[in-house]
Every structure is written in structure tokens, then in C-alpha cells.
Amino acid sequence: MKIxxxxxxxxxxxxxxxxxxxxxxxxxxxxxxxxxxFFDNKxxxxxxxxxxxxxxxxxxxxxxxxxxxxxxxxxxDVIHIHNLFFVASPxxxxxxxxxxxxxxxxxxxxxxxxxxxxxxxxxxxxxxxxNKKIPFSGIRHKCYRNSAIESAVVTSVTGIHKLLNTxxxxxxxxxxxxxxSRSKLLHSSLHxxxxxxxxxxxxxxxxxxxxxxxxxxxxFAGRIVKEKGVHVLAKAFSSMPENKIIIIGxxxxxxxxxxxxxxxxxxxxxxxxEKQKVN
Length: 279
Hints:
Layout: E1 2-9, H1 15-29, E2 33-40, H2 47-58, H3 61-74, E3 78-83, H4 91-98, E4 103-107, E5 120-121, E6 124-125, H5 136-140, H6 148-163, H7 166-169, E7 173-176, H8 179-186, E8 197-199, E9 218-221, H9 230-238, E10 245-248, H10 254-260, E11 267-271, H11 275-278
Parallel strand pairs: 1-2, 1-3, 3-4, 4-7, 7-8, 9-10, 10-11
Antiparallel strand pairs: 5-6
Helix pairs in contact: 2-6, 3-4
């Protein structure tokens, strides 16, 4: 089978990028022919670039033409999208429909129903926008990057394409990572039929038994952000000095956590680390 992966990278490397790499790798090992097309948010820089990106996020004709070109050249049997925000844009869904290629979209977060994609606000669960076609609460509370303007852009992109039924009609199958997120998304303003949404957790390669001589410590590996609860984990270990934890990863909260827990010798922050060393 010929599979075309499409992924819009964020400005910082994260779990979605890892998922794309692992899926393409395992499919290739199984004998499938795989091609991956990357878009990149790092290209969004200055003020004018952000303005152009804001308009392009709704429908980027350049991205649509690029995808059409790759479809004609590669002739895939199926297309699997992991992220289309913001450079790729929903325009790529119209391109794939034009070529009548089945499309799968993995929903790694709640972006289609929540401006900040997390269903959280001020560190608390927030579900104000789940059932709203145009969720103005996300704009009012500045849920995306603490900016009303940027929140309005994200809300406009997802909301307008809800009204156009882009998500409902241009995608054949949705993949969610767990039953909880599947339930939230099914009972939302997306109105996706139940038979079009399946659950497939992310995975990691089995490293085998490896070295059975293990040191006595706990380990966290991931992006250092509030929503992953790293600060809760560190606080817990600050009251358990007899237990050691090593926290691997980078992110916007790393420096704050390093400063806050600097005096605790049982809590170590390594920053970003190569996968081979983590394994």
C-alpha cells in the first residue's frame, strides 16, 4: 500500500513529531511505501508573516497546490494527516477530496473544539466551548497564547470549517488516542458519526530486555509544560527526599521548575536528550 503522511510541525519538536516518525517507520518495515510531506510553523516569524499566516490558516491555496502535486506524483492509496495547523491549513482536505483519496486524521488534541487544544484554562478543566460552533469563550478568555486576536484566528479557522462541514465531510476516519478523548469529541460541535471515529493509542518501540542492572530512580520523559503535570510530579518528590527522579525534556516551564526545585538534590532536570540515551 502507498501511504502519504502529511504533518505540520510546530515551532518546538514534540510528541506528534515522534508519533509521525514511529508510524512511518513501522509501516515501512511492514513493506508499505510511505512518503511524508512536512509543513513547518517555524516559517511564521515577524508581524507581516503572522498576518499572512492568519489568513492562510483558513485556506492556504499554496499548500493545496503542493499537496495536489504530491498526490499526482506519488499516487497514494490513503492519506494520513497528523496536524494541519497552521501552514498546511484545511485547504489540503479540499485537495485530497478533489483527487478522491481516502483521508485519515489523527486528533492528538482538542484543537477542533478548543482554542488552546487542551480543554483547560488557568490550570483547571474547561469545557465551555465543546458544543459551540463558534466558541466565543475562547476569544474572551484569550485561550490561545493569552491573545484575543490569536484566539480569534484559531476559533475562526475551526469554526468556519465546522459551518462548512469540512471536518465532517472531507475526512473519512478520525483517530483518537484514547476512549476519553473519543467520547469528548463525539459529543461535541463536530457532530462526527460514531463509526468514523476510532481509538488507536500512540506507541513506542519495544527495546527488549536491555540492561537488567537498573539504578534506583523514577523517570519522566516528555515536554515540560503545565498541562502534563510536571510541576505536580516535582512537588510530590520534593516531599520524598528518599526517592530520586530524573526529568528529561525541554519546554516553556523548564527554567521555572529548575529554579523552584533547585535545592532538592533528589530532583534532576536534564533538558532535551537523545532518544537512544533515554531508552
